[in-house]
Amino acid sequence: MPITLSSRFARRTALASAAATLSIALAACSASFDAPTLQPYQAAEGSNFESGQLKVRNMLVLADADGKGELHSVIVNDGDEADTLVSIAQAPAGTQDGQAGADQPTDVKFEGLTQPIDLEPHTALRLPGADTPPIAEAGATPSATPSETPTAAPTDTPSAPTPGAEDAGPAIIVTGAKPGQMVNVTITFGNAAPVSAYIPVLTDDHYSPSPAGNE
């Protein structure tokens, strides 16, 4: 006697088969080279970029609501040749770096880098240095009180005998960039090619244990 399947059972079987097929298809997609887990991402809040053996790590600006702030970063020379940091400035209009850069400020100034800074092989430069006095505004005379604003921690260390021991750099004062904006900067080196990238602007109490308004 032939065995027949009810229409309800047949429909359930078809649905189960379709679900299994869809599950296999989705699994195949997630295992492709475009899977989110295989895409590079940046855990730091600042921007990371490189020019040859020089690695710029966690670069950002900490600023107040009026657009007065300070540049924070660590620049690592992970090679065997010495170089210099020559200048940091807002990139000219139209500079391409492959990023979106929404709400780009129109006039941002970086002041405090008055001469090239040595970047010795297998060392790192911290901006600003841990003991760099604060500057109330561009052109002001530094006070004797050490800065209380914590410097953004580096996300990379050089291959030196004592990794993590960064040299202290100058305070680079930034005017014209407000929290929430992205600034397109160009960094110029003595030997390595100049590099442009967007860096974020955060509130000046971003790294404070007790940010204003949360007490």
What structural keywords apply?
globular; 11-stranded mixed β-sheet; single chain; 215 residues; mainly beta
Task: Give an overview of the whole structure.
The chain has one helix and eleven strands. About 21% of the residues have low confidence. With 215 residues, the protein is mainly beta. Strands 1, 2, 3, 4, 5, 6, 7, 8, 9, 10 and 11 form an eleven-stranded mixed beta sheet that branches. It starts with 6 loop residues before the first helix and ends in a 12-residue tail after the last strand.
Oligomer: single chain
Biggest β-sheet: count, sense, barrel?
11 strands, mixed
Euclidean distance between termini CA atoms: 81 Å
How many alpha or pi helices? 1
Shape: globular
Which strand-content bin applies to the residues?
25-35%
Radius of gyration, whole Å: 25 Å
Mean pLDDT: 73
By helix and strand content, what is the structural category?
mainly beta
Element string (H = helix, E = strand): HEEEEEEEEEEE
Number of β-strand runs? 11
Compact overview of the structure:
This protein is mainly beta. The chain has one helix at 7-30, and strands at residues 47-51, 54-63, 68-77, 83-90, 109-111, 117-119, 123-127, 167-168, 173-175, 182-189, 195-203.
